[in-house]
# Entry
Amino acid sequence: MSEIDPPRRSRLIVLAGPTAVGKGTVAAEVRRHHPEVWISVSVTTRKPRPGEENGVHYWFVSDEEFDALAERGDLLESAVVHGVNRYGTPRGPVDLAPASGHPAMLEIDLQGARQVRETMPEALFVFLKPPSREELERRLVGRGTETASERARRLETARVELAAESEFDVTVVNHEVHAAAEELVALMMVDAPDLS
# Structure
């Protein structure tokens, strides 16, 4: 790059989709094979699942800590998911990421994606879709991390979330995790519009 070339801006990808579609798994695959991609780490009030690390998978916070972040305006978006736990995206790192020139991605729920669209319409909104409704149900039941009542609540949420596909710019079908991750990374390599 010559001295007169402006720094490259990469487009922010906002990845959302129904519960149990594999958003976290696809994001982990991107992280594993493409360390140059910056991926936002959300805050949540839910308890960690086995194997989840604070600051890697999520920032696990108390309800009081979440309230303080929201009151200070430190969250780009926040939502109550499945009627129980709160999730949010820290604003500061997201504001800095696209200008750094590194590919960047938010992996969030549908409610959060809608909020981000209001403040960052220049982002590319990607809907991660299961190969079929039956496969989504199989994945949710198969992971075995929720009680029967939690699974039922998540399945109902997923049915509603699947109907939101038309709100997104692009759909990626999660037939296979590595292929879905590579498709996302390819989308990140398109230069973002310069809105300055």
About this structure: The beta strands are 12-16, 38-39, 43-44, 59-60, 75-81, 85-90, 104-107, 124-129, 170-173. Residues 12-188 form a domain with the Rossmann fold fold (CATH 3.40.50.300).
